[in-house]
Amino acid sequence: MKLPPRPGPFAQAFGSLQGWLYAHGVKTARLCIGSVYFWFGALRFSPGVTEAEAYLPGRVIAALTLGLIDGAQGANVLGSWECFIGFCLVAGIALRLTSFLMFAHLFVMFLPMALWPRQVWYAFPFGLTLRGQIILDNLVMIACGMVLASSVPRGVGGPRFGRVGRLLREGDDRASRWMGMHGVTCLRIAMGVLYVWFGALKYFPGGGGGGGFPQFAGRIIERLSLGLAGPSVGAAVMATWECLIGLSLLAGRFPRLLLAMILLHLGAMFTPLFFEPETIWLRFPFMLTLTGKFLVRHLALYAAAIVIVSSVAQRAHGWSTLVNPFRGRARAEATSEGRSSSR
Question: What is the pLDDT of residues 119-133, one digit of tens each?
Answer without folding.
Answer: 888 888 888 887 888
